[in-house]
Design brief:
The protein is mainly α. It has 8 helices and no strands. α3 runs antiparallel to α4 and α4 crosses α5. It is elongated. The model has no long low-confidence stretch (mean pLDDT 94).
Length: 144
């Protein structure tokens, strides 16, 4: 496939995803996800996780989210953090959740900073640390 074709398929897949035409989005994005595109992997993971345009598959959702997260894609790192935090698509593991939220937080993702702050505030998956919680809330833009 040419770069132009990949670009056209990606644009069409994202447009279909945003329009909630998930069957069409899956047709365009799945080959790109398999080829290693992190954004496509993240979107395909969401579709598998929620059964959007495809039969729900926790295994495929986790595999795609993990592939995108391991490439350093912050929103996927946040997504896999929630999978571990909630025990969705994978066994619940708050400590692993904190690791993934930390990676996304290091990239400035406000949602991950906030979630990680709450985890430090509650001692969920990490040692309870009110100072670290305050630092993370401040980094996320909360005026404490």
């Amino acid at each position: 496939m040419t770069v132009e074709m990949n670009s056209a398929e990606y644009s069409s897949g994202v447009a279909a995803f945003e329009a909630k035409n998930f069957s069409l989005a899956m047709q365009f994005l799945s080959p790109l996800a398999e080829a290693g595109d992190a954004d496509a992997q993240h979107r395909v993971a969401i579709m598998y996780q929620n059964g959007l345009g495809v039969v729900r598959s926790d295994e495929r959702a986790f595999a795609m989210m993990q592939a995108a997260a391991e490439q350093g894609y912050a929103i996927a790192q946040h997504g896999i953090g929630f999978m571990y935090l909630e025990g969705e698509c994978v066994k619940k593991d708050p400590a692993k959740a904190a690791e993934w939220f930390r990676k996304a937080a290091e990239q400035g993702l406000a949602g991950s900073l906030t979630t990680l702050a709450l985890m430090y505030e509650e001692g969920n998956g990490v040692e309870k640390d009110p100072e670290e919680a305050r630092r993370l809330y401040a980094a996320a833009g909360f005026d404490l």
